[in-house]
Amino acid sequence: MLEGSIPSRPVYGVLEIRPGRLHLMVADAEGAQAILDLAASAPSDFFAGAHIIYLPKKSGDKFVARLERLAPAQLYVGPSYEAALPRLRRVLAGAHMGLQVYLAGTEGLMGQAMFEATQAGIPHSAIQTEHRGSTVRRVQCVHCKGITEDVTHDPFRCAHCGLHLFVRDHYSRRIAAFQGVRIDAEDPGNIPESVERFR
Amino acid sequence: MTIIFKEETFHDDFTFRNSPEAVKRFPFPFPEDSYMYSVNLEPHKSYRPGSVYERTFDVDEHYVSEMRDRARVLAEDPLRCQSLPHMTLAGWDLLELIMTSKAEEYPELFELRRDGAKWHWINRPLGIEQKFTFLDETTLPYGPMEYITRQTQGDFAVLDQRDDNLWMDAGMVTTQADWSLDFDIGMNFFEWHAPVPKAHEMGIFQRALKFLLNVQQGSPARRLNWTMTVNPLLDTSPENYHKWGVMKKDLTLENMGQMMHLRVELQTFFRLPRSNALVFPIRCYLIKLDELVTVPKWARRFHRVIRDLPAELATYKGFITNRPKIVEWLSRYDDGAATSPGIWPD
Q: Under CATH, which number does the domain A22-131 receive?
């Protein structure tokens, strides 16, 4: 699970059933398990009002059949967050009062979807989160502003400008990313060995 | 009162200097021989004529060159000035506060004529004359916050107040001690202070927030903060850290007096009338160690503060590697004599 605490980082909880007219669920990889766990305590007609947007990533087919068995009103299985984004925005744009949002999976996914939901005017009180699976980080290079997804090692090379960055424990909800800062800024070329910190 | 504005740079050839008069009015931040965090907030009242505390927004000999440096930084990186859509009214509040204060307190330099919503602003040092309609954005060349803060020394964080918290929802930030507006915009008080060591556990931010939420219109507050900067860089942003960080390596005992600077922030807090936002100007004053040691009391005290500062704070403030050298250099100016209480020269 997520170690350490940073005041700028969101606190994630455990999904629970809440009354609502539409239940929008966005999950990636192991996040599917949080939805399946939620189903255990759901009333029988609950998923008839559910729209699941699921991005399996490395988990492949592992959870897809079980999500189908929940018989949600809509189930979308997509290849990436970017691919799912137009759909997510469309659903949020059409949302009425009584929408409940459930986010589960990696921090990067939840952060980005949370931003979209709040931009669409969904109140924080109607959005739940549960962290599941990988602790890989989404990191923004403070120098070039490019975002590197799924960072496992620290330091790592920025996928955009190529600088060697260390991962700072400072998190922006708006960008849904941690901050990456050049590690050898004061002593160019002096780059410590990269260590796997996030799995 | 006549201010002679200096022609100087805060980049490349670094020609910034303080005149002897500017040294005398420098806001030395240490009232005693040691330093630890505190909620050192006090009313921002006019105090000690000639000091940086005399006026609402201090204008000094560096004004024109600092504004030129701000324009240069903004041209390179427009993300240093941002305002979330709901903050425009706070921008007008800020423009009004600065224009009315400056016109009243520096009548030789600034003039504001108002006829209802038709305003006429004259900024003599920068050669600006602008007629505009108050609260009508289309009549200014920039948004109101950007317009006025391109003409006012110091960074500006404009904080929205809601849910018993302060939210950094707008700002002009080009003279910062290593924090990024672009990354922090939209954060609340605890979130944007997240990287500061020790202070969270000490309860500093809870107490400070409680105080700031209660700042009333017409009763601004202030405090000082400090760090150290190699070369007189106003822009020590994380964005450009890969350009200025390397300069720390060039520091030697020989160039210490000219290259190393104490960087002091005069932070003030004003409640704004229409938006109920809180504006948080962060004014940066730089002084070379050669200039600082011309005041014997400051030289003695500064040596002791830097020598005894907890390592965690020296690391956070970015001079842990250079500290032994700085302390060695400063020790030459410390004869061990007692220092008088308070920040002012004897």
A: 3.40.50.80
Helix (H, G, I), strand (E, B) or coil at B291: helix
Question: What ipTM was predicted for this assembly?
Answer: 0.89
Contact B248 A186 (CB under 8 A): yes
Residue span(s) of chain A under CATH 3.40.50.80 come to 22-131
- Whole-angstrom CA distances from B12 to B64, B243, B247 are 18, 11, 11
Q: Which domain holds residue B65?
A: 20-331
Q: Tens-digit pLDDT profile for chain B (346 aa)?
A: 589 999 999 999 999 999 999 999 999 999 999 998 877 889 999 989 999 999 999 999 999 999 999 999 999 999 999 999 999 999 999 999 999 999 999 999 999 999 999 999 999 999 999 999 999 999 999 999 999 999 999 999 999 999 999 999 999 999 999 999 999 999 999 999 988 877 778 888 999 999 999 999 999 999 999 999 999 999 999 999 999 999 999 999 999 999 999 999 999 999 999 999 999 999 999 999 999 999 999 999 999 999 999 999 999 899 999 999 999 999 999 999 999 999 999 8
- Judge whether A190 is closer than 8 Å to chain B, CB to CB: no
Would you call B147 exposed, middle or buried from its count of C-beta atoms within 10 A (0-12, 13-18, 19+)? buried
To probe the interface with A, which of B84, B183, B248 has the most A CB atoms within 10 Å? B183
Per the structure, the count of domains in chain B is 1
The token pair that represents B34 in the structure block: 């040691």
